[in-house]
User: Fold this.
Amino acid sequence: MSRRPPTKKSALPLAPDSPRADGDQIIRLKQSLAFIEAVLDNIPNMIFVKDAHELRFVRFNKAGEELLGYRREDLIGKNDYDFFPKSEADFFTSMDRDVLAKGGVTDIPEEPIQTRHHGPQFLHTKKIPILNEDGEPEFLLGISENITEKKQAEATRIRLQEEKLARAEAEKAVEIRDDFIAVASHELRTPLTPLKLNLELLSRRLEKCALPEEAKNLLRIVAASLSQVDRMTALVEDLLDVSRISAGRMHLEKTPTNLSQVIQTVRSRILTELQRANCALTLKLEPGIIGKWDASRIEQVLTNLLTNALKYGKGKPIEIESRISRSFSNSNLSVCELSVRDHGIGIAPDDQLRIFERFERAVSTKMFGGIGLGLYITREIVTAHGGSIRIESAPGQGSRFIVELPLGAETLLEAGPAL
Amino acid sequence: MTVSVAQGNPKLPCVGILLVEDDDAIREALRYALEYEGYDVSSASNGQDALDKLKTLPRPCLVLLDLMMPVMNGWELAENLSKDAVLSTIPVVIVTAFSEKVGELAKTHRILKKPMGIDLLLSVAHEYCGQPPQALGKPPLRPVEL
Assistant:
């Protein structure tokens, strides 16, 4: 420590111990030092002074004590190697030497530091050499602001901003997908509308005329065209349903639905095709099963199952059965069971799971048309209702598709005659 | 599908059907189908056009309303009609290719989903307009350009 009078020096850490000072001067000096000490201790930044030679601490304020977790009595006279891991101490020491060699203020925007009680912290530090009369560095002044919280806040802000951005992007993607489905449905159905209406009108008008043989042939061509329009319409609807399912946008409008009514609706709609395929349809319905289901979707399930039964069991009878039953997977649970039984080609065990996947079919497209979406959509609709579907089948033995639909609290068993 | 009863009062004196549809091919196909059955059909190519025509036309028995149209779309026309004391009494059936975007209208209006069959179209026409004035089987009143 220097013995020179403090007035001539800028060195703050000096004690007022000049032998030439008189009593009053000493008191005044002590007072002014106490004042400076109080100011330093109340500054929230860590302020420390090291001697320029051995880089030992000679001053340390309260904020520094709190940050590092050491009392100044433990710090004074020690250097960085006494408190920090060697790699950190090496870093601080070489930094300090650089500052002293360079002269002037050195700004370190961010430095990590290991503290005793607060774990790793980050400091923004300014280091300034304090020179003696000869212009040689005598002390090193350090002022450190703890920027850990600021840094964490900034990191949080960036993370939140990134999350917000990601969320907005995800929402945008969903919106684009929804728009695509809406636009695609609209645009694909639009040209089918006049096509269907015009062909139906043509067929309707022609049927009412007494036609020569040639015109009757033309009428058959119109009918064939119409069935292709219906086939196209079904494909469009299936593809749109797949888009809805993959976008998680299959919306169910659940209302109290009478299962027998659904079955009758589908039966009357599919009657012509039943006759064309020469399939006799037998209904075995438990009366008055009413569940909270989406009626049009349940109609779609049954239509798909019946269409398959017709396709793979031409000329053979088909049975539809509905009943309240114990669930296949949980015998304590009562469920509504709807099954469609055909006596067609049947399905090999290996194919029985696969056919519920998209674009999967059990048999070659050469034999039977279709792009393999019907059962996938069927399963998705049933699952969306909280139900399940399974197959009982063997090659050459026909197939029975069994749909289980939940009988929720809203489900009623209505007494009355079968529909 | 469950449909709600169309709003309006079909018992008031009325004439024919107003088609509001921007797609020429669809509008003509609808007109063709209805006129062949003997219904009196007027058409408008958007909501504004329909509002203008409703000022001069005799009260139609039914408005068949598309939704996606330029100038004034079907949602806007339906709202405009519902605000008018006289026009709100005309039954409106929505004819749309949308399934997801119909929105609130689905709760108050009957919906015909495109592409619909001619039987359904004619049964709706019959329900609101009764038996057509002309004998069945006549050719359309004017040639239709498709």
Notes: Chain A touches chain B through 30 residues (CB under 8 Å). The domain at 6-146 of chain A is CATH 3.30.450.20 (Beta-Lactamase).
